[in-house]
């Protein structure tokens, strides 16, 4: 179970925010204010949630580190020599079948689009992870940002006082191979990386400082800052300093967002006691409060040996957590604006090795998109009877990223200027898979 830390919030109703004031702040263009409150419960008000969810798209990436098997999840081949021991089962969408290890997602197939035809060509962990986090191959002359940094830049707000990009990666497997990287976008879009605890360290004020003292110190700082600014033109450095200070103060106030003890026990029970489930619940809390991008990594899918035992243990957990996450988002009116992605660095080989495992395979594997901007119940692409190659609708990393960006309302052909060099969001000539877009 993921570690939690005690909160300094007393729970008093004195700290709540009235709807009129909250919506007034939203209307004034400060939607990030929603996350700068210790009483997250205000977001449960239907009218408030409706106003908030229309302010922008959000993304939760379920990163299956090590490479999950498409044959034991989204593209089973029962009866084939490569198929393995598990059956396929029908889903809520006629003609679409997935692994019997995923009965919950089978019942929710109408919310999910499967892409079964990824051919990404890089079959080593490091290269594959960077490719599937960046959507393109490394370039020695440009430091590319990863998906999280791009979406933080495109979906976040310049005046945001909460994290733009949070990544949970508690396992050691593959952590150094897929780090969040802001690339040429700069450190402003670097992730808040949580590797040992679910609650960020060093956000809480010192226990030796009383709440009233903390408040008065902030007020004194604001007073001195205003006096300093008086009769001076606001310089870039001073403005940056003030923005940074407000952002830190906002991050401190947002600590409670990481604390699942703020959730009703019934909600916590739905997600389950596993670390993956708890971090998915935190991800929902974060995007509900306006964080644009959250990655939750679930590692140990690298099944070179005992592939079927590994997936028999891990796929049901993925099935449960993903299904509950989609249900929770839908019930809160957030799924239509939240894109949930399952992705890894590659898939697993159709061939079963002498250790009864599947090795690295990047030629014909699967990913899923659920929620915002995509057609639920869609299946795109097809592999051959044994799963060895793509026979229809091949999708590369650039096409996948273009599709994700378009689903979120982002022009995939948009260009950034890196010095004097224009760099598009996706490689030149890339087209999104429009057949899966809503």
How would you sum up this structure in a few lines?
By secondary structure, the chain is of the alpha/beta class.
Task: Note down, in words, how this protein is organized.
By secondary structure, this protein is an alpha/beta fold. It folds into three domains: 13-55, no CATH class; 58-194 and 274-436, Alkaline Phosphatase, subunit A (3-Layer(aba) Sandwich); 200-258. It has helices spanning 19-27, 46-53, 103-107, 125-134, 147-155, 211-229, 236-253, 265-271, 275-288, 307-331, 397-407, and strands at 58-64, 88-90, 97-99, 112-118, 165-168, 192-194, 293-298, 338-343, 347-348, 360-361, 365-371, 379-380, 382-383, 390-392, 415-418, 421-424. The strands form five sheets. The protein has an eight-stranded mixed β-sheet, with helices on both faces. A two-stranded antiparallel sheet has the order 2-3. The chain has a two-stranded antiparallel ribbon with strand order 9-10. β2 and β3 (97-99) form a beta hairpin.
């Amino acid at each position: 179970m993921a570690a939690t830390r005690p909160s300094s919030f007393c729970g008093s109703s004195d700290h709540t925010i009235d709807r009129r004031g909250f919506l007034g702040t939203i209307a004034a263009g400060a939607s990030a204010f929603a996350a700068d409150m210790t009483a997250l419960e205000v977001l449960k008000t239907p009218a408030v949630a409706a106003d908030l969810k229309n302010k922008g798209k959000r993304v939760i990436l379920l990163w299956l580190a090590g490479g999950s098997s498409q044959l034991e999840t989204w593209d089973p081949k029962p009866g084939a020599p490569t198929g393995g021991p598990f059956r396929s089962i029908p889903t809520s969408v006629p003609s679409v079948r997935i692994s019997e290890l995923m009965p919950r997602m089978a019942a929710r197939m109408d919310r999910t689009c499967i892409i079964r035809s990824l051919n990404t060509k890089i079959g080593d962990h490091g290269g594959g992870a960077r490719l599937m986090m960046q959507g393109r191959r490394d370039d020695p002359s440009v430091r590319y940002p990863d998906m999280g940094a791009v979406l933080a830049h495109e979906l976040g707000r310049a005046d945001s006082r909460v994290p733009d990009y949070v990544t949970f990666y508690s396992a050691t497997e593959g952590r150094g191979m897929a780090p969040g990287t802001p690339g040429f976008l700069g450190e402003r879009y670097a992730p808040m990386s949580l590797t040992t605890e679910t609650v960020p360290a060093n956000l809480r004020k010192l226990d030796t400082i009383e709440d009233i003292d903390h408040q008065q110190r902030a007020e004194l700082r604001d007073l001195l800052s205003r006096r300093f600014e008086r009769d001076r033109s606001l310089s870039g450095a001073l403005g940056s300093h003030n923005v940074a200070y407000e952002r830190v103060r906002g991050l401190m106030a947002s600590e409670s967002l990481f604390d699942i003890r703020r959730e009703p026990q019934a909600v916590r029970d739905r997600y389950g006691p596993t670390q993956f489930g708890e971090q998915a619940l935190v991800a929902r809390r974060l995007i509900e409060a306006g964080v644009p991008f959250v990655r939750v990594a679930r590692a140990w899918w690298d099944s070179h040996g005992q592939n079927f035992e590994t997936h028999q243990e891990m796929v049901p957990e993925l099935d449960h957590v993903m299904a509950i996450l989609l249900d929770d988002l839908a019930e809160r009116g957030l799924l239509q604006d939240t894109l949930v992605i399952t992705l890894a660095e590659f898939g697993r080989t159709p061939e079963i090795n002498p250790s009864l495992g599947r090795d690295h395979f990047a030629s014909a594997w699967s990913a899923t998109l659920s929620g915002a901007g995509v057609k639920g119940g869609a299946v795109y692409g097809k592999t051959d009877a044994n799963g060895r190659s793509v026979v229809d609708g091949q999708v590369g990393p650039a096409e996948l990223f273009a599709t994700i960006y378009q689903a979120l309302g982002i022009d995939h052909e948009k260009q950034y200027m890196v010095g004097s060099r224009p760099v598009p969001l996706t490689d030149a000539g890339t087209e999104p898979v429009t057949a899966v877009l809503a």
